[in-house]
Every structure is written in C-alpha cells, then in structure tokens.
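Moderator note: this is an archived Q&A kept for reference. The question asked for a predicted structure of one protein chain; the sequence and the answer are reproduced below.
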Amino acid sequence: MIQSSYTYANAAIDTDPNVLQDIHAASKNIAIYQRNIALLENELHQLATQTIECRASGTIDNVLGKVQAYLVSTSGAYPFLLDDISELLGLFQKVTKASTFRLLLSTVSTNMCRKFHSDINNLRMLCTYIGPGTRWIPDEAIDLDAMARKEDTAIDLQKVQQAGTGEVVVLKGALYPGANPILHRSPTIEENGERRLLLRIDTNESLNLFG
C-alpha cells in the first residue's frame, strides 16, 4: 500500500464500513473501507496457489449459492471467505440499492488494465484478498489543462495512491449521475511474478464494458 497521511478531496477513507455511503457525495469518486482480514489468513493461504475464476449473477442469495458451489467443487469450503463475500454484497446493496449483482472472484497474474481509466458503469466494488490493490488518482494529481491537451505530464505519478490488501473500494464510474469518475488502474504484477485474488462486484443494472 502507498502510505499517505494526506486526506484527498475526492476520497472518503475510514475504518467504519459506513464510509462507503460517502461515495454518493458530489465531491467523492472513491470510497475506501480500511479493515483487517486476519480472520481469512488461513483460507487465503490455501487459495494462494489455486487458479480461481468464479462468475455469478443474480440476487445475493443466487450469487452466494454459486460462489459456494464453485469453491466446494474446485478447492474447498472456505466458510470465512464466503461469509466475507456475503458481508461485502450486503454493503454494496446498501450503497447501490440494487437487487441483482454480477460477481467475479478470480486469481490474476497479469497487469490487467495497464492504463489509468474510468469504468463505463455507475458503481463498482473491489477487494483484493491476495496481492496489491487497485491504484487510483487523487484529483490533486491531475492537471486538467494538460489532460485536455493529452500531455504525458497530466498526471503527477508521485501522488498516485494504492488500496491496501483486504481493503474494500467503491469506485464511481462514468454512468453515475453527475459523476466525475475516478481514474484508476490495476497494479503492476506481471513483471515480478506476483499473483492477486480479486473480488469484483457490479450491479446488473449497470453496463460493464471492461469485462
């Protein structure tokens, strides 16, 4: 995690899960729930060498049933991880007021999205259970005039931030009403052989052009 004591104007960050509701504030485009996932340590250690790709959609009960069946059929029960995913789905439901969701739980060994971008959706939840988290750009790091001119210096890379392992991130996308969508990208892991276990949750009501 890139440590910083500075509070960025576009980010809501706290150890209280209710901080995720702050994503609806006009000035915020990223909300981060900082937490300890030590309870999951043993299960995540078992999963660290597995290849996981679980996709599920539907209501929370539908999604959890599919995730549970996948984990049992491929590698084990993992009750603590399943409980955690259930909790995160519940938090995301409170934030979005949606009734159905799309979920991806997957191991990642590539850099995925290499360039900073905004998603074509309304809201997205991410949690990196293993490995480095999502990198994101504070508003203060963006030179809007330079960006309009498509200059390489538009982003101050020294100010780029990174979510910690286990932290819960909600991102504003381009389809959120009146949004200034957050610019973010996947961490660089391919070059040094790192692996991630990533949870991604979207609403079924939103578009998802990034897969």
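Archived answer notes: The beta strands are 11-14, 30-33, 53-58, 101-108, 123-130, 135-136, 161-162, 168-172, 184-185, 196-203.
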